[in-house]
Design a protein that fits this description.
302 residues; 60s Ribosomal Protein L30, Chain: A; Phosphoribosyl-aminoimidazole Synthetase, Chain A, domain 2; 2 domains; 4-stranded mixed β-sheet; 25% strand
């Protein structure tokens, strides 16, 4: 099977996931053409997932595809963006239509859950690697950044932390064949949900936000550094996922919940926002008054 035959198989598997009202030109041309809403700023992000680094090499392709799109969409959620469109680049050591089609089905399922079309991409020969570039929009001037937290703000997260890290620590993720076979820990790893709706509700309310991808301590530390402040967290307020440890909740990563700061919890969020501490003057992240080592994920840590 050549490259173009493989692309045809992938597009058939994606089906309706390649179209949306604003898509003027989708897959098949030199570039996609998408109409951007008037009066908006474009928000863009890209993530690369490498087999054996960001997912078990033997994991089912459909689960890998779902995860690949969701982890990128989580970056749009952190900025308060509405989903616009996605592009996917895939490299494989050899043409493997069965694996590629299953990957596309997973990508398509995640695209449906996020209401975002996949409008194009690229395929090449190389190690198994998936790059997903996502694009969205916010009303002009209303993107939420990391640089806005101020002393007196409260710190919130949108859900339990540590489950995906606990799943990795337990091992055996390659043994799950589909969602029906997964327990809560495996589901947290393979089926994260980008908090897009929450992010949109935070526009104009949150002073800063970030998605928890590399561990709460590390990611909140980025917010503190960008904002020139410190954070004081309360151990007893941390929403530790069942089956996870406090350490995994603080440093494990792969949660894809949002961590944000604001004066008070926005109306309508209710239980979706859990207060875990407050912003204070200074620098760093503290838990019950003690500054902890930041031990989140880093690609080039020695």
């Amino acid at each position: 099977m050549n490259e173009f035959e493989l692309i045809d198989e992938i597009l058939q598997a994606l089906g309706d996931a390649t179209g949306a009202p604003g898509v003027r030109v989708g897959p098949g041309d030199d570039s996609a053409v998408v109409a951007a809403p008037a009066g908006t700023d474009v928000v863009a992000s890209i993530d690369t997932l490498i087999a054996g680094v960001h997912f078990p090499a033997a994991a089912p392709a459909a689960l890998v595809g779902y995860r690949a799109l969701m982890v990128s969409m989580s970056d749009l959620a952190a900025m308060g963006a509405d989903p616009g469109y996605a592009l996917v680049a895939l490299s494989l050591p050899q043409a493997d239509p069965q694996w590629a089609v299953e990957l596309a089905r997973g990508l398509g399922a995640a695209a449906a859950d996020c209401d975002v079309p996949i409008v194009g991409g690229n395929i090449a020969r190389g190690p198994v690697c998936i790059s997903v570039s996502v694009h969205g929009w916010v009303p002009a001037g209303f993107a939420i950044t990391r640089a806005g937290a101020k002393p007196g703000d409260q710190v919130y997260v949108t859900g339990p932390l540590g489950a995906a890290a606990a799943a990795l620590a337990r091992g055996g993720l390659e043994d799950y064949c589909d969602e029906s076979s997964m327990d809560d820990l495996a589901r947290a790893y393979f089926r994260p949900l980008a908090q897009l709706t929450v992010g949109q509700r935070l526009r104009g309310v949150a002073t800063a936000a970030i998605d928890v991808s590399d561990g709460l301590l590390q990611d909140l530390g980025h917010v503190c550094a960008a904002s020139g402040v410190a954070a004081e967290l309360e151990h007893d307020s941390l929403p530790v996922a069942p089956g996870a440890t406090v350490h995994q909740a603080l440093s494990g990563g792969d949660d894809y919940e949002l961590c944000f700061t604001c004066d008070e919890v926005p109306p309508g969020l209710g239980s979706e926002a859990v207060r875990i501490g407050q912003i204070v003057g200074g620098s760093g992240v503290f838990v019950d008054g003690k500054q902890l080592d930041v031990a989140g994920y880093s690609h080039f840590a020695q």
